């Protein structure tokens, strides 16, 4: 299995386009996932009976194979980018929701009571006390969800999207390993870089944790 | 939409669809064969590794990074890559599925081992137990619930991903998905996908029930 470097040299534009499209799909899914799971997590955190239901539901959704999710969405949104992003979003929910709920649970009751005693309203406590303190656990979820989404985008190649995944089908159909190797390497690279950036973001957002560590 | 679901119902319930080499029963058996074998191999690799890392406390960095690397590895790419290297064989399927399952097993086994109360471990040593005895008689039983969770997670992911066997011309329930996509037969695609999802969800629930039953006497 040899790498045809000239192919890579000739296709840098295509590789760039596919990488950007790949990243857009993955990040779009994580963003949508956060948009859905942050409010749901607050609900699950505050209203105990709903907690098991919401977490259980996201668990069941997670067991549905990614290819199946894409395919099951076909009658709704067809062979489009929307299908890719919705499918990936479903997958991010389980991690994002569980980590956000756990993060909110980990905030000490005394801290919340102190905020209340200082006259902070519930919404303000949530935004300025609870979410910041829950941030490390939430960010751990965001990191897992991001890496997972980046790796899963290529599954959408079966429904005609898939970013770098298209390189896999291309290489497979032509019995030509170079694009496949390029796709695998770029996917892992994207995941590693995105993960490192998220670590940096978390570091920047939690200055109070630095001195202790 | 309604018509589609009606056709899907007919597809799933007709007797002829269930029999023969291309029947659901046969494809289901193939799918379970790939999934169980891959998970077993992954357990044979991942369990000792996780136990060793947890017991010695060495290599935790490796375990954590292995997990994120495993998550980043695109399964479709791996299957195609091994296929191009090995030709038409079961290797691509098993390599990809095992690579998918090992990280989940290692990290959960390791997590289970670190969750063992250090005082309990010390007490075992204080009673004169050797390293191997502490591992097998104290740490392993205490870590078992989390180890089971890891195995369950791995199996579910493998069942979901075994669909890919059909992509490199093998059987399993993925056959319907890929044949359906090629023939533009949405009912067949949806039927295959629904069956895979059903198997994954059923196995997950069954294993969760088994886990609850096995550890019903434990409080934590």
UniProtKB/TrEMBL annotation, chain A:
A Gene Ontology BP annotation from the UniProt entry: glycine betaine transport
Keyword Magnesium tagged: no
CC annotations in GO: plasma membrane
Keyword Lipoprotein: no
UniProt subcellular location: Cell membrane; Membrane
Transmembrane segments: 20-41, 53-73, 79-97, 133-160, 180-205
Cited InterPro entries: ABC_transp_perm/SBD (IPR051204), MetI-like (IPR000515), MetI-like_sf (IPR035906)
Keywords, alphabetical: Membrane, Transmembrane, Transmembrane helix, Transport
Alphabetized Pfam families for the sequence: BPD_transp_1
SUPFAM superfamilies attached to this UniProt entry: MetI-like (SSF161098)
Membrane topology: Multi-pass membrane protein
Entry superkingdom: Bacteria
Boundaries of every ABC transmembrane type-1 domain copy: 19-198
Protein family according to the UniProt entry: Belongs to the binding-protein-dependent transport system permease family.
Protein name (database record): ABC transporter permease
Lineage of the species this protein comes from: Bacteria, Bacillati, Actinomycetota, Actinomycetes, Kitasatosporales
From TrEMBL, chain B:
Subcellular location field: Cell membrane; Membrane
InterPro entries linked to this entry: ABC_transp_perm/SBD, MetI-like, MetI-like_sf
Bilayer disposition of the protein: Multi-pass membrane protein
Transmembrane segments: 34-53, 60-85, 91-111, 153-174, 186-210
Superkingdom to which the source organism belongs: Bacteria
Family annotation (Gene3D superfamilies): MetI-like
Domain ABC transmembrane type-1: from-to ranges: 28-211
PANTHER family reported for this sequence: GLYCINE BETAINE/L-PROLINE TRANSPORT SYSTEM PERMEASE PROTEIN PROW, POSSIBLE OSMOPROTECTANT (GLYCINE BETAINE_CARNITINE_CHOLINE_L-PROLINE) TRANSPORT INTEGRAL MEMBRANE PROTEIN ABC TRANSPORTER PROZ
Family: Belongs to the binding-protein-dependent transport system permease family.
Protein name per its UniProtKB record: ABC transporter permease
Species annotation: Streptomyces phaeofaciens
Phylogenetic classification of the source organism: Bacteria, Bacillati, Actinomycetota, Actinomycetes, Kitasatosporales
